[in-house]
Amino acid sequence: MSSLVAIIEFTLNRVFLGSPGTGKTTVAKLYGQILVDLGYLSNGEDTIGCEAIINKLEDYRLTVKHLRELEIDPRQHVPFNFLFRGPPGTGKTSTARKMGQVYYDLGLLSSAEVIESSATDLVGQYIGHTGPKTQELLEKSLGKVLLIDEAYRLAEGQFAKEAMDEIVDCITKPNFFQKLIIILAGYDQDINRLININPGLTSRFPEELEFASITPDDCIKLLTKLLQKQKSDFGLKINGFDLDALESPRPEFTKKLRSRFTRLTQTANWANARDIQTISKSIFGVAIKSMRDKKIAICEDLVISSRSAARYASANHNIQPACSL
Ligand SMILES: Nc1ncnc2c1ncn2[C@@H]1O[C@H](COP(=O)(O)OP(=O)(O)OP(=O)(O)O)[C@@H](O)[C@H]1O
Ligand SMILES: [Mg+2]
Questions:
Q1: Cα of 68 from ligand 1 centre, angstroms
Q2: Which stretch of 144-148, 155-159, 208-212 has the lowest confidence by average pLDDT?
Q3: Cα–ligand 2 centroid distance for 137 (angstroms)
Q4: Nearest-ligand number for the alpha carbon of 224
Q5: Residue whose CA is closest, atom 25 of ligand 1?
Q6: What's the whole-model pTM score?
Q7: Ion ligand 2: residues, Cβ under 5 Å
Q8: Which range has the worst mean pLDDT, 38-42, 147-151, 293-297?
């Protein structure tokens, strides 16, 4: 594990200082496990800017560990219900999918399974249908994580309100209290709306994980990482993969790219990491078509070419790009 900790990317690096026997190794191992659970180490996912989330989960892990040492039940001291809020493509769903493993490893769930659901799985079609339907889903999720994605749909209509009321009511009952993890995920304004129409929600879901928009500089980092992944996936199959434009960028090019991303991140419907994945695929698609002698080159012009940006814009938003990368 210590070697795993050593290879974590620089944004996640930590220095563990202290006298002998003060738990540096244990803490480092715990930190490594959180990163493994979240997929940052095990499957090489190229995640950028999620430190705050990782730190929070790391805090829970330490809390649980220390309380266990004191033979105190940790359940009272870590949250079981979460609101995941943030703009599109910032990792709400993908992080929620990993929470089962995190809580399972903490010994707080009997399974690492995450049950993904939406309003349709909770909301009934006739009077008296919603309560039992919601209860059934909660029962199915006992010992697991119940992810209710696109939570805005629970703010629409009377039956949806009944479903929320049922959840709010059930999770304090002994059958369900601290026996499953419930995550409500959505955009900021949708979560706010949900809170406004369900006054009991805030006290039942005091834990909010905020997923932040990716900054222009982090957009550049993520784009570089995604293309670097392509480069390493191609490995020996090709005679060369020139990614110098992004790996050793000229300062003027970084400046240009930063300003393009600044404008792009301000366009309506910008979906953060998801859109950067699309841009990366577009750039790579053009590069592979232009391959010569099994050599791939991603030059500055290609990175900021209107071709890749136009493809991105029309594929994703059915609009002309407000700015081209
Ligand atoms: N900070 C990040 N760094 C790198 N990749 C990320 C990051 N956040 C999300 N991704 C990737 O972007 C894609 C979309 O993420 P995800 O579906 O979890 O976003 P979301 O917040 O649920 O979006 P939406 O609000 O539209 O449902 C996934 O492939 C995910 O791995
Ligand atoms: Mg999502």
A1: 34
A2: 155-159
A3: 20
A4: 1
A5: 88
A6: 0.82
A7: 92-93
A8: 38-42
Ligand nearest to the CA of 149: 2
pLDDT confidence tier of residue 58, bands split at 50, 70 and 90: confident
**What pLDDT, on the 0 to 100 scale, is given for residue 110?**
96
Task: For each of the domains in the chain, give its residue range(s) and CATH number, in order of start.
Answer: 48-210 (3.40.50.300), 216-305 (no CATH)
Q: Whose CA is nearest to atom 26 of ligand 1?
A: 88
Q: How far is the CA of 149 from the centre of ligand 2 (A)?
A: 6
Task: Please name the residue whose Cα sits nearest to atom 11 of ligand 1.
Answer: 273
211-259 pLDDT, tens per residue?
A: 999 999 999 999 999 999 999 998 878 899 999 999 999 999 999 999 9
Residue nearest to atom 24 of ligand 1 (CA): 88
Binding pocket residue ranges, ligand 1, CB within 6 Å: 46-50, 86, 88-94, 211, 214, 222, 271, 273-274
Calculate how far, in angstroms, residue 222's C-alpha sits from the geometric centre of ligand 2: 19
Q: Give one word for 293, left, alpha or beta, with left for phi > 0 and alpha for psi -120 to 50.
A: left
SS (H, E, C) the chain: CHHHHHCCCHHHCCCCCCCCCCCHHHHHHHHHHHHHHCCCCCCCCCCCCCHHHHHHHHHHHHHHHHHHHCCCCHHHHCCCEEEEECCCCCCHHHHHHHHHHHHHHCCCCCCCCEEEECHHHHCCCCCCCHHHHHHHHHHHCCCCEEEECCHHHHHCCHHHHHHHHHHHHHCCCCCCCCCCEEEEEECHHHHHHHHHHCCCHHHHCCEEEECCCCCHHHHHHHHHHHHHHHHHHHHHHCCEEECHHHHCCCHHHHHHHHHHHHHHCCCCCCCHHHHHHHHHHHHHHHHHHCCECCEEECCHHHHCCHHHHHHHHHHHHCCCCCCCC
Counting ligand 1 atoms within 8 A of each CB, the residue from 48, 94, 227 with the most, and so the one to mutate, is: 94
Phi and psi angles of residue 80, each rounded to the nearest 5 degrees, phi first: -115, -15
Q: What tokens does 3 get?
A: 């070697």
